[in-house]
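user:
I keep going back and forth on a fold encoding question. Separate attempts, laid side by side, tell us more than any discussion would. Would you put together a sequence-and-structure record for a protein of your own picking? Write it directly below this note and I will take it from there.

assistant:
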Amino acid sequence: MDGCGGVLCTLGIEGERTLLAGAFGGATRWIASDRRTWQAAVLAVAGGALAGCYVWPMILWLLRMEERPQTIAMAAFLAGTLGISGVRALSAVVDARARKMRDA
């Protein structure tokens, strides 16, 4: 491992690929948005990194994809791009499916 991923790995952070992919997803969201302030950029990148780290399994589950290194990074990027609003939407989907399973 080299570059930023290696630095993050030496700092003891597991899942550096998901962290970076999510952060880049957040940056992509910021670039595509109408808010062009640095505060919005920092929040988008930080929110994207957090979403990428913790939400990628849900993205893989929703897309019904295998857990491979390439698909994990792709799912983390998508989660980072969706950001916190994506987390809300994913929560609504999971809640709806859980209610459907409970009522069946």
Observations:
- Residues 32 and 81 are 10 Å apart (CA to CA).
- Residues 17-103 form one domain.
